[in-house]
């Protein structure tokens, strides 16, 4: 397989300038031996550089068995404390300082001690504050109980006194049968024989009040008296700290057993009990004492909150810096854990992938780390030769990154295979615009995306919603889509479905000034053809739809065949780059012949028909090319020798199918046998089939047993069938360009004619305003949002399936370097 970085196609080779996006950067597997005293600083400098992807050399060890497990645990604990501070600041509505993170040196041990002290102080302040707040809420409830229960007793005493007077008056006036019994008389006469009633007072949640009363009644068998009243405003519950609607209650009972039951029921219902005295004087005194304590506690709580806020503000000034440092240190130790410890335990061995162009930068970082750490021994840097497939790395900028993401969403390119992202920059927005062609809608899209581009610095630092974030990320894709939509809109001559004579006057005019026969006899040509795009006079005529349908359908096939041919040509460049001659002669050549024998020929017929103005039926020509290839074409003949050409092309198409299917598996088997017999040492490793076979059978013996001819043949059969059927279905798939373009044009026309013009015809300002608003919402909602998304998805499908499946394997993996810059992006 050889060392991958030495393949052809490196930077600056050949007559043409390098294309950074055409093929991924040449990569190399490097080994670095780092003295243990400079390991931390070395990894830190490499993280700043961000051009080295470390390999995990301790994959067989658990996280707890690794060298720097304790340091990671410490960093995790500090990160937990910082999260705690962040939560506290969020609760207190204090935002961390937006000062930029500076590279001031902070010792990790000092930071650990400081964070521990701040956490302990903050926990103590919070604990004291919670206790004070709970006491404060209890006192507020107690005050309510004193006030409401005092009202109960005061009204009850007044009522009892009035009743006593009434009984006494009744006894003096009448000593008949209604007089009290002897026992009652004795009890009235002797207070010691009266039943002593106890009572319990407190607050119960309002939603539990009915159930509370019912349970009390059942538990005491009715031997209790409950009095309760609702509190107007919700009160803060001392236990939960939440606002709850409550009732003040007083339960009167007789006997200790009843008291025990009542207390248990209060506990079960979460009713807070408070002591109460019957003495009115003592009640007033207690209310005054509670009020004084409440005011005193309020002052103490406010002072505590001010103290807590001052602690959090001090933390907020350095919060981002501390957070960045802890994340940075944790990532460094995670990386150090991927390095293997040398047997002498004096140095660490690192392996990783790096772009070839970054060699000098990596070596410079190693030298700086050795110097800054005062190490006596420098780090050793060496390039390893390997059979492993390197990661794929494209250097993108803010413009090209979104297009590359479109390709990567399908699959990351195999190392150094041709990158569809280069062509996607132009073909993707162009195919979108073919479906979306309207220069009015294109201008609306362009203005929207220009807003994002002009304010990109400000918007990139803000938190946007999911949809806005996605739109902002693809702002340059949308800009290109808008520019191409304006271009195709000018070709279609549609501005919100209205044609304009922008490039001169129409080539057609009426036969007379009245234009009465325009719809019956038609127009006559009075000038040369309209110089650019569709003549404005076509719009609104009876022949508009047949004409545009024919134009767009044929244009879709031409564009589709051109893009599929581009895909097949790219497969040639892939095969040439990887020195795979089998793929050139037995894949690229027959595929190119098959596609162009059928659909390349159809494209030629379309162009000839346009140029000659012939009325030949192309459907008939293509169908009978297969059904009756020897029949005369008659009036469908477009040029001399067409019949002979058709027979040759049909023969080539039929030959190309077995050409794709049989030779490649047979030659692979032959080359495999020659290699194992020592007769040939050609570089067979470059073919994907041999890669699979070597990988799958490397542990077996040599000879014919290693080569599974049936597997390779079935694999090739599937590829052949897929291409032959795909050539037909993929060409038909490009007709979506015509269908969506027609749908967009017709929808735009309906909104203009049936909404805006209809409202205009009423000659009423209110109806006109309503019609204009409906038109704007329909245009924005349907045409600028839904249609944009629809055309985007269809263009995506054409690239992923119809274009990329001709040459793109997409089975690579991304280059993920250890980088502090990526760490900051993840944090955002």
Automatic annotation (TrEMBL):
<keyword id="KW-0812">Transmembrane</keyword>
<keyword id="KW-0472">Membrane</keyword>
<comment type="similarity">
    <text>Belongs to the V-ATPase 116 kDa subunit family.</text>
</comment>
<feature type="transmembrane region" description="Helical">
    <location>
        <begin position="555"/>
        <end position="573"/>
    </location>
</feature>
<feature type="transmembrane region" description="Helical">
    <location>
        <begin position="585"/>
        <end position="608"/>
    </location>
</feature>
<dbReference type="GO" id="GO:0051117">
    <property type="term" value="F:ATPase binding"/>
</dbReference>
<keyword id="KW-0175">Coiled coil</keyword>
<comment type="function">
    <text>Essential component of the vacuolar proton pump (V-ATPase), a multimeric enzyme that catalyzes the translocation of protons across the membranes. Required for assembly and activity of the V-ATPase.</text>
</comment>
<keyword id="KW-0375">Hydrogen ion transport</keyword>
<feature type="transmembrane region" description="Helical">
    <location>
        <begin position="644"/>
        <end position="662"/>
    </location>
</feature>
<keyword id="KW-0406">Ion transport</keyword>
<keyword id="KW-1133">Transmembrane helix</keyword>
<protein>
    <recommendedName>
        <fullName>V-type proton ATPase subunit a</fullName>
    </recommendedName>
</protein>
<dbReference type="InterPro" id="IPR002490">
    <property type="entry name" value="V-ATPase_116kDa_su"/>
</dbReference>
<feature type="transmembrane region" description="Helical">
    <location>
        <begin position="475"/>
        <end position="492"/>
    </location>
</feature>
<dbReference type="InterPro" id="IPR026028">
    <property type="entry name" value="V-type_ATPase_116kDa_su_euka"/>
</dbReference>
<keyword id="KW-0813">Transport</keyword>
<dbReference type="GO" id="GO:0000220">
    <property type="term" value="C:vacuolar proton-transporting V-type ATPase, V0 domain"/>
</dbReference>
<dbReference type="GO" id="GO:0046961">
    <property type="term" value="F:proton-transporting ATPase activity, rotational mechanism"/>
</dbReference>
<dbReference type="GO" id="GO:0007035">
    <property type="term" value="P:vacuolar acidification"/>
</dbReference>
<feature type="transmembrane region" description="Helical">
    <location>
        <begin position="430"/>
        <end position="454"/>
    </location>
</feature>
<feature type="transmembrane region" description="Helical">
    <location>
        <begin position="765"/>
        <end position="786"/>
    </location>
</feature>
<dbReference type="Pfam" id="PF01496">
    <property type="entry name" value="V_ATPase_I"/>
</dbReference>
<feature type="coiled-coil region">
    <location>
        <begin position="101"/>
        <end position="135"/>
    </location>
</feature>
């Amino acid at each position: 397989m050889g060392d991958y970085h030495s393949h052809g196609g490196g930077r600056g080779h050949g007559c043409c300038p390098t294309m950074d996006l055409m093929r991924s950067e040449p990569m190399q597997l490097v080994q670095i031996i780092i003295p243990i005293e400079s390991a931390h600083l070395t990894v830190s400098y490499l993280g700043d550089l961000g051009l080295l992807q470390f390999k995990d050399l301790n994959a067989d060890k658990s996280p707890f068995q690794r060298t720097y497990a304790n340091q990671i645990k410490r960093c995790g604990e500090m990160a937990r404390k910082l999260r705690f501070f962040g939560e506290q600041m969020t609760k207190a509505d204090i935002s961390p300082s937006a000062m930029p993170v500076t590279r001031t040196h902070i010792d990790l041990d000092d930071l650990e001690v400081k964070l521990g002290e701040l956490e302990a102080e903050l926990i103590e302040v919070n604990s004291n504050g919670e206790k004070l707040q709970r006491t404060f809420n209890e006192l507020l409830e107690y005050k309510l109980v004193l006030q409401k229960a005092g009202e109960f007793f005061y009204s009850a005493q007044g009522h009892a006194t009035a009743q006593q007077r009434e009984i006494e008056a009744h006894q003096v006036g009448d000593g008949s049968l209604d007089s009290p019994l002897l026992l009652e008389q004795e009890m009235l006469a002797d207070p010691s024989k009266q039943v002593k009633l106890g009572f319990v007072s407190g607050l119960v949640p309002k939603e539990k009040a009915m159930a509370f009363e019912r349970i009390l009644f059942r538990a005491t068998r009715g031997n209790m008296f409950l009095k309760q009243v609702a509190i107007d405003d919700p009160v803060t519950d001392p236990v939960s700290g939440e606002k709850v609607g409550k009732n003040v209650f007083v339960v009167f009972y007789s006997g200790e057993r009843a008291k025990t039951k009542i207390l248990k029921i209060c506990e079960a219902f979460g009713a807070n009990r408070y002591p109460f005295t019957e003495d009115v004087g003592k009640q007033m005194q207690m209310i005054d004492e509670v009020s004084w304590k409440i005011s005193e506690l309020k002052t103490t709580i406010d002072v505590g909150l001010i103290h807590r806020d001052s602690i959090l503000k001090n933390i907020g000034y350095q919060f981002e810096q501390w957070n960045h440092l802890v994340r940075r240190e944790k990532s460094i130790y995670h990386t150090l854990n991927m390095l293997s410890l040398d047997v002498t335990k004096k140095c660490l061995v690192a392996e990783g992938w790096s772009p070839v162009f970054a060699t000098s930068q990596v070596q410079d970082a190693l030298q700086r780390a050795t110097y800054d750490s005062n190490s006596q021994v420098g780090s050793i840097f060496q390039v390893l030769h390997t059979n492993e497939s390197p990661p794929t790395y494209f250097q993108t900028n803010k413009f090209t990154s979104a297009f590359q993401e479109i390709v990567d969403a399908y699959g990351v390119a195999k190392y150094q295979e041709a990158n569809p992202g280069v062509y996607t920059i132009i073909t993707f927005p162009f195919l979108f615009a073919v479906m979306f062609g309207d220069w009015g809608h294109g201008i609306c899209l362009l203005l929207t995306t220009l807003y994002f581009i002009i304010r990109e610095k400000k918007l990139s630092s803000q938190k946007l919603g999911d949809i806005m974030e996605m739109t902002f990320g693809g702002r340059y894709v949308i800009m290109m889509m808008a520019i191409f939509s304006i271009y195709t809109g000018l070709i279609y001559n549609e501005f919100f479905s209205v044609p304009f004579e922008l490039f001169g006057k129409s080539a057609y005019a009426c036969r007379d000034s009245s234009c009465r026969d325009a719809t019956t006899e038609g127009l006559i040509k009075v000038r040369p053809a309209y110089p650019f795009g569709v003549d404005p006079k076509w719009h609104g005529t009876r022949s508009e739809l047949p004409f545009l349908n024919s134009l767009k359908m044929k244009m879709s096939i031409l564009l589709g065949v051109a893009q599929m041919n581009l895909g097949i040509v790219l497969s040639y460049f892939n095969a040439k780059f990887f020195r795979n001659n089998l793929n050139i002669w037995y894949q690229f050549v027959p595929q190119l012949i098959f596609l162009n024998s059928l659909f390349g020929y159809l494209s030629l017929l379309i162009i000839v028909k346009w140029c000659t103005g012939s009325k030949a039926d192309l459907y008939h020509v293509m169908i009978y090319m297969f059904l009756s290839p020897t029949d005369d074409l008659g009036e469908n003949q477009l040029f001399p020798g067409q019949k002979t050409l058709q027979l040759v092309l049909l023969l080539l198409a039929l030959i190309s199918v077995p050409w794709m299917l049989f030779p490649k598996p047979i030659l692979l088997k032959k080359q495999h046998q020659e290699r194992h017999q020592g007769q040939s040492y050609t570089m067979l490793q470059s073919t994907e089939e041999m890669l699979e076979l070597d990988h799958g059978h490397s542990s077996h013996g040599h000879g014919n047993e290693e080569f599974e001819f049936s597997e390779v043949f079935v694999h090739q059969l599937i590829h052949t069938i897929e291409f032959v059927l795909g050539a037909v279905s993929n060409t038909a798939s490009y007709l979506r360009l015509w269908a969506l373009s027609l749908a967009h044009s017709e929808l735009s026309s309906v909104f203009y004619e049936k909404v805006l013009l209809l409202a205009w015809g009423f000659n009423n300002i209110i109806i006109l305003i309503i019609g204009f608003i409906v038109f704007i919402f329909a245009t924005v909602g349907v045409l600028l949002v839904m249609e944009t998304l629809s055309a985007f998805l269809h263009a995506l499908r054409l690239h992923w399936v119809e274009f990329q499946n001709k040459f793109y394997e997409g089975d690579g993996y991304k280059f993920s370097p250890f980088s502090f810059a990526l760490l900051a992006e993840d944090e955002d």
